[in-house]
Amino acid sequence: MDRRAFLATLLVSTAITALPAFAAPVVTYEVTPELIAAAKAEGTVVFYSSLDVAVAEKLAAAFEQKYPGIKTKVERAGSERVFQRVGQEYGSNIHNVDVAETSDAVHFVVFKRNGWLAQLQPAEVAKLWPETARDPDGYYAAFRAHLSVIGYNTKQVKAEDAPKSFADLLLPKWKGRMVKAHPGYSGTIMTATHALSQTLGWPYFEKLGQQRVMQVQSSTEPPKKLAQGERSVEADGNEYNIFMLKESGVPVEVVYATEGTPITIGNGAIFKDAPHPNAAKLFYAFMFSKDAQQLTSDVGGLRSFHPGVVEKPDRTPLSKIKLLYSDPQKLDKEIEAIKKKYEEYFGT
Amino acid sequence: MSTASDFRIPVRRGSIDWSKPVFMALVAFLAVLVLLPLSWLVYFAVTDQAGKVTFANFVAMATDPTLRRPFILAIGMSLSVGALSCIIATPLAWFVARTDMPGRSFVRIFVTASFVTPPFLGAIAWEILAAPNSGILNVVYRSLFDLEPYDHIVDIYTLPGLVFAISCYTFPYVFTLVSNALDRVPSDLEEASAIQGASLYTTLRRVTIPLVLPAMLAGSLIAILQALTMFGSPAILALPAGFHVITTKIWSLFQYPAKPNLAAAISMPLLMFTILLLWTQRSILGRRGYTTLGAKSGVPRLTELGHWRWAAWAFTALVLLLTVVLPYLALIQTALTRTVAEPLSLASFTLDHVRFVFFEFSATSLAMRNTFLLGLMTATVGTGLALVTAYIVSRNVVKGGWMLGYLATIPVAIPGIVLGVGLFLAYSNSILPLYGTIWILLIAFLTIEMPAAYQQLSSAFRSVHVELEEASRILGATRMETLRTITAPILRSNVIATWCFVFIGTIRELSAMILLTTADTKLVSVIIYDLNESGDLGAISVLGLMLLAISFVIITIANRLPLFGGPKLTSLRG
């Protein structure tokens, strides 16, 4: 292979020479008995995911229960690690992955541009998903959405003292008492940082950087640091992890900031060179089925685009939350600048 | 004719001297092993993303403060680790090997436990113990003195905290080398000193310490290099504190959009720093003869400490408490309680984490199998290679043998994560398509473990007098026979120690593997790291304790097997 092309694909740099995108019509498919039989013959499906590891394993177990005889291999890592791994593997022609999902929408823009995705869409997605939550060419679709929220430990902070807004986080009383995740590692936080830098501006982050914030990597981690009692307030982190902890009796609570709450769309897709193409199709369709979507909502606290999913009553519905969006096409070009500024303010 | 056969002079078996061909093969093998990834690194350092030659990477390194700072911190950190390890380990080794301190026989077991503990697991355990707010030690401290939340006595998320957490798991390098050396210091020299009227202190200073100085230096050097190239512990403790060391900085350069060229350039000064260290060690050791095991040897003399016995005991107990007992207890508690904050009680007890690791987490069994398979392969092949290399170098078997020593030592200077990239580039093309198989992991492990194995065995060779081997050669044995029948048995305890070093080193290696493992070639260390990034401390504790238990079993078996001369091990020490 040409060395330059090899490196480019290896590192999934922006310099990738994109394969020409053919404007082929969207291919939708149903789960048929033939598909199930073919998937069972393959026997395995490999799922790269950035879901919380417990949720990912539960999703896999539900799939195995519904379609016995198909083993699900879950490769769980942070979004950026999943992205890096797929890039490394496809760069050296290793086709391990059947289905992948990450919480960084930029990844699927890049995957699609590289021509690595299969143009397949489950019928359920075509029928039920809003147009904004699926790729117009049918290469990927929003498997989930989740929010990056402020949160606090209710044993350490009374509800009336808790921060109500991002501006509150800059109060001296929170100095040394906050935890937050890293945009270089977490797709959720990169998306949130992009959205917040547009809404609040960089001076907000500059001031937050002077609050001696404990810096963790994955956006699943700040809620766990709250649960552990290591810090009282999280400046960002997954809403769904707080739901999961709270519902198991841990004293943590979500805050929807008055300025708005950043939302992250987590896409999923089938890879073109999937080693188990039929099992991949079956698993991918299952991911968007009402059962799976209800499951990830119930045990995972994730937000679903499936209209049939019923959320637990004590969760605030998305319609009542002021949401802040980030455009993946724009974000793709700004990642470098965001990381540089972030390191300047936070040290890493 | 029959008479002729009756009086035939016995033919010397293996009379061909194999040392030349073995040497050539070794040079070729080590060169490929070491130089292939290294040349990729050098090439990357002086090129840009498009493959054009440039010095921009080095200019960026000199001008960008976010690149300079990690260097200063990393060098300060690793020198502190070296010093602290030496300060902890040297008295400990002396107490155990040469004094009548009570409970000596247990100390080696505890030190082995510390050595077996992967540093990143230790760092996680120390997070559980000494995080400023939720750390168990701080919680106890606050409840004892009735203090406010956030008052704390220790904070592990600081530079001193990091130095401490790393030293807990690097001091065994110094301990093992120094205590082995002390075992071999003939007591006649010390007795001579005592007869001349020297006090205990003077004898220590003038006789014993100079004799074990090479071991102290070699051990501290390993500790420094380990700290310098370590990724796991700084990633766990330095990043939350808001600072980078070199390895974590390099790792962050591989996040999207990756800058491998800059990462390669950053590793160049690290390489030079390491070479400087090795050169210093060589020139210090080169000045004196330190042979301590000749054909005749005295029995080491035990020093009676008197009342100081209890001071020694207290020091030892404190060290073992901090490095082994408390971290292990913290892991056990975390494995068995719902969240880290709760104390272990009937109400908080749960087997959820155990169930999750063994029955829900799909990566567990595959990762366990890969890890131990690779551990066994690397330890066996690696020790063999290092033994032959150390022999050729230390006995000047062939001209230019010293080159092998350098080749075998170079990988120590390459941070694991960078080596991972070099290996990935070298073995993922169509000529050598090894990425995605366990063979690329075996190559990576061999490369990473070679320096430590070689250092251990070559320092062992330095302390065995060549006269025994010469006797064997005069009686007609070839070099390879002498190595097999004389040198290797004398060094048996060192060979076993090296095998264990390599095995343990393999199962706890993390940084190079992060870029080389795939779904089918998972390792326990990598899944532990993945779990840490998402904060699943309970599952980590279960996996970590399992890893530790199995390592102990392997080491115990290796020490007992008659094949390895288990029972004779102690008598040889005497």
Structure description:
The complex is a heterodimer of chains A (348) and B (574). Chain A has 13 helices and 13 strands. With 348 residues, chain A is of the alpha/beta class. Chain A is globular and about 65 Å long. In chain A, 57% of the residues are buried. Helices cover 40% and strands 16% of the residues of chain A. Chain B folds into 2 domains: 241 residues, Orthogonal Bundle (MetI-like fold); 226 residues, MetI-like (MetI-like fold, Orthogonal Bundle), CATH 1.10.3720.10. The interface between A and B is large, with 73 and 55 residues.
Descriptors:
heterodimer; A: 348 residues; alpha/beta; D-Maltodextrin-Binding Protein, domain 2; 2 domains; six-stranded mixed sheet; five-stranded mixed sheet; 13 helices; 13 strands; 40% helix; disordered N terminus; B: 574 residues; mainly alpha; MetI-like fold; 26 helices; 0% strand; globular; disordered C terminus
| β-strand number of chain A | 13
Distance between termini of chain A?
36 Å
Residues in helices of chain A, as a percent range: 25-40%
**Rg estimate of chain A, integer Å:** 20 Å
Biggest sheet record of chain A: 6 strands, mixed
Mean pLDDT score of chain A: 89
Mean pLDDT of chain B: 82
Query: Can you name the CATH architecture of the largest domain in chain A?
Result: 3-Layer(aba) Sandwich
Please report the first level of CATH classification, the CATH class of the largest domain in chain B.
Mainly Alpha
Work out the helicity level of chain B.
over 70%
Count of separate DSSP helical elements of chain A: 13
Short description:
Chain A is built from 13 helices and 13 strands.
What is the element layout, followed by pairings?
The complex is a heterodimer of chains A (348) and B (574).
Chain A: H1 3-11, E1 28-29, H2 33-42, E2 44-49, H3 53-66, E3 71-76, H4 79-91, E4 99-102, H5 105-114, E5 121-122, H6 123-128, E6 140-147, E7 150-153, E8 178-180, H7 187-199, H8 202-208, E9 214-215, H9 221-228, E10 233-234, H10 239-247, E11 252-255, E12 261-270, H11 277-287, H12 290-298, E13 323-324, H13 328-346
Parallel strand pairs in A: 1-5, 2-3, 2-4, 8-9, 8-10, 12-13
Antiparallel strand pairs in A: 4-12, 6-12, 7-10, 7-11
Helix pairs in contact in A: 1-4, 2-11, 7-13, 8-13, 9-10
Chain B: H1 2-6, H2 19-45, H3 56-63, H4 65-98, H5 104-116, H6 119-130, H7 136-145, H8 159-167, H9 171-184, H10 187-195, H11 200-229, H12 232-241, H13 246-252, H14 260-285, H15 308-336, H16 352-360, H17 364-394, H18 402-409, H19 416-426, H20 438-462, H21 466-474, H22 479-490, H23 492-508, H24 524-533, H25 537-560, H26 568-573
Helix pairs in contact in B: 2-14, 2-18, 2-19, 3-14, 4-5, 4-8, 4-9, 4-11, 4-15, 5-9, 5-15, 6-12, 6-15, 8-12, 9-11, 10-11, 11-14, 11-20, 13-14, 15-25, 16-25, 17-18, 17-20, 17-23, 19-20, 20-23, 21-22, 23-25, 24-25
